[in-house]
Amino acid sequence: MGAVNARSSRVVILGGGPGGYEAALVAAHLGADVTVVERDGLGGAAVLTDCVPSKALISTADYMSEFETAADLGVHLEDAEGDEVSDAVAELGEVNRRVLALAAAQSADITTRLTEVGVRLLAGTAVLTSPTSVRVDTSEGELDLEADVVLVATGATPRVMDTARPDGERILTWQQIYDLDALPERLVVVGSGVTGAELAQAYLGLGSQVVLVSSRDRVLPGEDPDAATVIEDVFTKRGMEVLGRSRMAAVERTADGVVVRLEDGREVVGSHALLAVGSVPQTRGIGLEENGIELSPSGHVVVDRVSRTSVRGVYAAGDCTGVLPLASVAAMQGRLAMSHALGDAVAPLNLGVVSANIFTDPEIATVGVTQKDVDEERVDADVLMLPLARNARAKMLGITDGFVKLFAQKGSGAVVGGVVVAPRASELIFPVTLAVQHRLNVDQVASTFTVYPSLSGSIAEAARRLHVTG
Q1: CB 5 within 8 Å of CB 320
Q2: Phi-psi region of 274 (alpha: psi -120 to 50; beta: other; left: phi over 0)
Q3: What is the rounded CA–CA span in Å between residue 23 and residue 30?
Q4: Closest to 236 in 3D by CA, of 274, 206, 197, 271
């Protein structure tokens, strides 16, 4: 496909999420005739029901937690009568309306941008009728499109279990929580992965009682163990009830709430249940298998590092591929797909330099080599962890939980990974990502100026402590 003439190419993209709309921008820039088919609105789930709204909700909870920090810093709020105000109150209906308005505005901005560069937008659902043709079902009828390049970017949807059927009122998926007008009195969150942990803490911060049901030994089982320990300690310190090694068997609605039944026979009663038990790719019924496109046993589209599927001319990007469920990775996959298909320069996807963030409070940001890689001796690296509580800027900001951890390759001292646990760790991880991406060694990082006082100073300090002597 690399020899195709971009100026005469017809590109059809199934799905308008990050993988789809970023691909459309690249293809349009390269001169292709681009059509995006999207059912729910530009931005997809990432913008409309997942990343953008959930992080906006979490930001609201973080803002409320700052009231508590303010008191520790000697700042006290008073009402009009001069009485001290100790608690902020979240009006969930107002919060959700703002969150959804923000998501809609972001979707509108994406729509405007695609329209500006000449991308054709079709509202509807699409099915591959062949590797070079797509049938679109719109409100005005069916439309057949011919394509030189097809990109499948249909995303994923929350996993639903027969024993825990969401009803959108008391038993909810993470896409349904924005319809709530009142704060759940007692929310039972099932699943302690990234989505479960983020939303459990968000509702705790907004004022709900929260019970987190985790089937594993600790929350965030797939993350850095030191980081997960900090987060679980913060959860319990702030009043969350964490049930470890507790696998959900069923969720049932009662007259005035829900009951979550565990496999060991225990029952957890709540006003609402939030299901965060994974997602499934939206790849069935859209003509993929019928046209020879290989799917994995889990239903994900199998792709290589430039997003090619098993069929020439058909590419895939985002959560439907199962490569790494991050909006940033979806966007990169989409861009790589179009660059490759339309003959532009392209470097294969490198998952070793992907930075990721968990929007708990504090946040957890990671890049590159992990603690597990070192512990299981897949990577020979020195590890240095520096608590943030010793950082002068952290003291000023009232930060007591968190750390910076760097992984440096033995011998060369190259920075091969890092973990930051801190407020706004998503911003602090960037210098570590630069070091990993460009193979900087600890001495190069350590000799780079940082502002004093600053949280980023701890990154340079960790690098200094990893300097090899003798």
Answers
A1: no
A2: beta
A3: 11
A4: 197
Strand 171-173 versus strand 272-275 pairing type: parallel
Partners of 408 in the beta sheet?
382, 415
94 CB burial (10 A radius; 0-12, 13-18, 19+)? exposed
Minimum mean pLDDT range among 207-211, 329-333, 372-376, 396-400? 396-400
Q: At what angle do helices 194-206 and 51-72 cross, to 10 degrees?
A: 50
- Residues 317, 196 contacting (CB under 8 angstroms): no
With a threshold of 0.90, does the pTM exceed it?
Answer: yes
Contact 49/178 with Cβ under 8 angstroms?
yes
Q: How far is CA 81 from CA 64, 77, 78, 85, 216, in A?
A: 22, 11, 8, 10, 49
Check the CA dihedral 447-453-454-455 and report its sign: positive
Confidence (pLDDT) at 2: 44
pLDDT category, 86, cuts 50, 70, 90?
low
* Edge-to-edge strand list for the sheet holding 149-152: 141-146, 133-138, 120-130, 33-38, 10-14, 149-152, 314-316
